[in-house]
Amino acid sequence: MSKKQQTAISPGRADDYPEWYQQVIKASELAEKSPVRGCMVIKPWGYALWENIMRGMDDMFKATGVKNAYFPLFIPLGFLEKEAEHVEGFAKECAVVTHHRLEKSDDGGLVPAGPLSEPLVVRPTSETIIGDSFAKWVSSYRDLPILINQWANVVRWEMRTRLFLRTSEFLWQEGHTAHATAEEAIERTRMMLEVYADFAETFLAMPVIRGRKTESERFPGAVDTLCIEAMMQDRKALQAGTSHFLGQNFAIASGIRFQNDREQEEHAWTTSWGSSTRLIGGLIMTHSDDNGLVLPPRIASAHVVFMPISRSDRDRARVMEYTHNLAADLRRQRYHGGPVVVEIDQRDIGGARGWDWIKKGIPVRVEIGPKDIDKDAVFVGRRDREARARTSIPLGRFTGGFTRLLDEIQDNLYQRALDYREAHTVALDARAAFHDYFTPQNANRPEIHGGFARSPWCGAADCEKRVKDELNVTIRCIPLDATREKGVCVYCGKPSKQRVIFAKAY
Q: Between β-strands 269-276 and 237-245, what pairing exists: parallel, antiparallel or unpaired?
């Protein structure tokens, strides 16, 4: 019987996936829990990922005509009350400020003093307060469209939290637009979904399914919600971005009116769309392994680390000169519009140094010692390959082909994730097979099971609810590229017109 290979992360994915996820975050120094329940501290290596996400996504937004702005963190309670369905959807998650000013109590502590004239809700999303600004900015069709995005934090008072995936406070972007016609607003809704999908696939190497939410899963107050769904390595789905066509619901509530080209007054048509630091959680669960984090080069906090090796002062000077010259050469190179980011690690901690960078997911590791210099070569490890699989590469070939190497790693990670999704996506038409697919063999300690089921659905909300209640399975989306197909609902047996994606989800 062969001995199980030791890995850097314990437990492994197959043994305890939720705990593995937490240990990857800890080992890679992405984030940690904060003293405030449900919140997190994003550490430099993790925040660099968010900066790269912001930079890449922001460029894509602006290419469509969107401009950035900023709106208040606090929203008057009365603003939320204007849109009843919206309020109902977020009410249980809202944090509310009721007092201002602190003063000393009789026992020497601090207590709230003056009550506010109107409670303020800490931003769970900004449709209502942005709508108030839009109402002031718009009077004529000539003022439209308005295309606005903000990078901000939001608070949703979650009961069960998990770093990056679900926290009480998180970072995100939210886009809001107003249009003169429904057609323009619908086009914008679809356009921004495609931006999200393109970003997820080209930057995060995360394959996604573009789809539409069912009526029961729509954003509160929306007419239509589009989404991208990705499969994680535990075969659960992660909603990675949403784009909402809001119709005129929020425009009516906020009073966004304009005079059209026929000199008639009407309400604008609006959209909203958002993504968040949840993308980092998706990145972790899509690519990482039992040795730690794996970062696609286009989003990585850094691209390469140089680890000089020397045994004497004479060797050290020679190795460091070689290392710094090589680092300078790579830093002059460009990778997809930005500079190649290089780390140099001079710590004298033996083999632990290499493992630290493996756990942090850096795409390329390079060891440089006197023997490598004598051969005018470098000793290279790639994070998309086994940790111990390292190769000596002539220096000229390494530097001349470095960006191609990064692209190769990026493409490999995307293809690996796509292959995994395809291997665990099945067409199921029989209720018994559907039930078995989503039922673990060990109910007390569920193993990784299931995946995406492409199955017929009758379209009834009560049937959808039964699946959720009985199996904890939801309709992730109705794929946008789905074709009409007559069939029989996998759960209730009533006629069906199409297949949808069922899965367990985060």
A: antiparallel
The average pLDDT across 465-493 equals: 96
Give yes or no for residue 4 having a pLDDT over 70: no
3-class secondary-structure state, position 257? strand
Mean pLDDT of 242-256: 97
Q: Please indicate, yes or no, whether residues 253 and 219 belong to a single structural domain of this protein.
A: yes
Cα 338 to Cα 179: distance, rounded to the nearest angstrom: 34
Among 262, 287, 312, the domain boundary falls at 287
pLDDT in tens, 42-76: 999 999 999 999 999 999 999 999 999 999 999 99
Virtual torsion, Cα 31, 155, 273, 464, nearest 10 deg: 100
- Alpha-helical runs (H) found in 242-388: 249-254, 278-287, 313-331, 352-360, 370-374
Element containing residue 405 per DSSP (H, E): helix 402-423
What is the model's pLDDT at position 84? 73
**pLDDT 10s digits, 147-178:** 999 999 999 998 889 999 999 999 999 999 99
Six-digit token string for 385: 């390959």
- On whether both 174 and 96 belong to a single domain, the answer is yes
- pLDDT of 324-348, one tens digit each? 999 999 999 999 999 999 999 999 9
- Could you tell me if 261 and 226 lie in one domain? yes
Are 48 and 74 in a shared domain? Answer: yes
Last residue of a domain, one of 353, 385, 420: 420
Using alpha carbons only, what angle is made at residue 493 by residues 487 and 497, rounded to the nearest 5 degrees?
30
Residue 115 pLDDT exceeds 70: yes
Same domain, 77 and 153: yes
Amino acid, res. 130: I
Given the DSSP bridges, would you call strands 452-457 and 425-427 parallel, antiparallel or unpaired? parallel
| CATH assignment of the domain containing 27 | 3.30.930.10
Q: What is the DSSP letter of 447?
A: P
User: With contact defined as beta carbons under 8 Å apart, do 68 and 55 qualify?
Assistant: no
Residues 47, 165, single domain; the answer is: yes
Please tell me whether residues 169 and 241 are part of one structural domain. yes
pLDDT, position 378: 97
- DSSP letters for 118-138: EEEEE-S--HHHHHHHHHHH-
Let me know if residue 12 belongs to a domain: no
357's tokens: 């960078």
pLDDT of 17 > 60? The answer is: yes
CATH of the domain at 354: 3.40.50.800
Amino acid at residue number 109 = G
Q: Is 10 helix (H, G, I), strand (E, B) or coil?
A: coil
Tell me which residue range forms the domain holding 333: 304-420
